[in-house]
Amino acid sequence: MSLNIAKDLIEGAVIGLNAYIKPGGVHRYAPGVLFDEILCNLISIIDSLAEAVDIGSRVRRGELAASSIGYRKLIADPLKEVFRTCSSVHPQYVVPLVVGGAALGLSGVESILEESSKFKKALELIVTGGSWSDIKYFVETLKTIGRQDMYDHLRDSGYADIAILKTATNLNEVCKILGSKWKGFLVIEIHEGPLFTYLKRLQEIYRSEKKLSHSVIALYMELVKPHLPPSLIDKAKSAESCGYMKSTECAKIMYELDLTLRKSKLVFNDISEVVTLIAAFGSFEGFK
């Protein structure tokens, strides 16, 4: 069961990442190596993700104490494994997936949307229940895996200070701080995180689209539109009216929009993070 849940999450994440064309975002035809790096990250964590689900399930069954959900094993070890396998690590994808997997195991829900309060309670227990030493270990691990930028961002926000870690910090707060630059972390933030809102919206889109990859593109475009320059609004509306990637003509519009955004250095990798992770949880809901 744990492995099946892990496979569902990874399948959805890969579909979400792969979905093209996401203008200005990460997709399989986007220039550069970012797509390949993230894909490697996703594929390499499937065993760690299955283990996270299993740990949550064992706590739910009373076989383990809740204190067994330590961030060293749950988060830091998978990040290090990704570093060994892929060299480049993108924690904004890895952390929400393993934490979300543990919450699925702990809650035992069959649907996040239909049993949202139960899932949220499990997620809250995980992101607020770790020890300060585990948080410190996670923060230090960011340096170990080559994410000095994330470590520096936390340090500049005061979250590398032991005194603060001992008194007021939990994983939810750390994800909130990191999420100010890497939006993927916000998916598991329990107060203002977008998981339930965007997952519900993905469900609504999926009911008409009947295909996860098309639904991801539609959700991505909804989130990107407010950030587009006025000169591209009409082109985005044209793409929407013809169904984005549903015809050759639509695909041409999306391709042109992608090129224009990249030439203007308007990149929405942060929104790609969010929709890829929402697609992962959408796959658990049965969206394929």
Count of separate structural domains: 1
Q: What amount of the residues lies in strands?
A: under 5%
Give the helix/strand class. mainly alpha
H/E series = HHHHHHHHHHHHHHH
Low-pLDDT residue spans: none
Gyration radius, to the nearest Å? 19 Å
Mean pLDDT: 94
Overall geometry: globular
The helix count comes to 15
- How far apart the termini lie comes to 19 Å
Query: Helical amount among residues, as a percent range?
Result: 55-70%
Describe the overall structure.
This protein is mostly helical and 288 residues long. The radius of gyration is 19 Å and the shape is globular. It has helices spanning 2-18, 34-44, 46-60, 71-86, 91-107, 116-128, 132-144, 148-156, 162-167, 171-179, 195-209, 212-224, 233-241, 248-263, 269-285. It has one domain. It is built from 15 helices and no strands. Helix 1 packs antiparallel against helix 2 (34-44), helix 1 (2-18) packs antiparallel against helix 5 and helix 11 crosses helix 15.
Task: Put the structure in a nutshell.
This protein is 68% helix and 0% strand. It is mainly α.
Layout: helices, strands, pairs:
Layout: H1 2-18, H2 34-44, H3 46-60, H4 71-86, H5 91-107, H6 116-128, H7 132-144, H8 148-156, H9 162-167, H10 171-179, H11 195-209, H12 212-224, H13 233-241, H14 248-263, H15 269-285
Helix pairs in contact: 1-2, 1-3, 1-5, 1-12, 1-15, 2-4, 3-5, 4-5, 4-7, 5-6, 5-15, 7-8, 11-12, 11-15, 12-15, 13-14
Characteristic terms for this protein:
single chain; 288 residues; mainly alpha; 15 helices
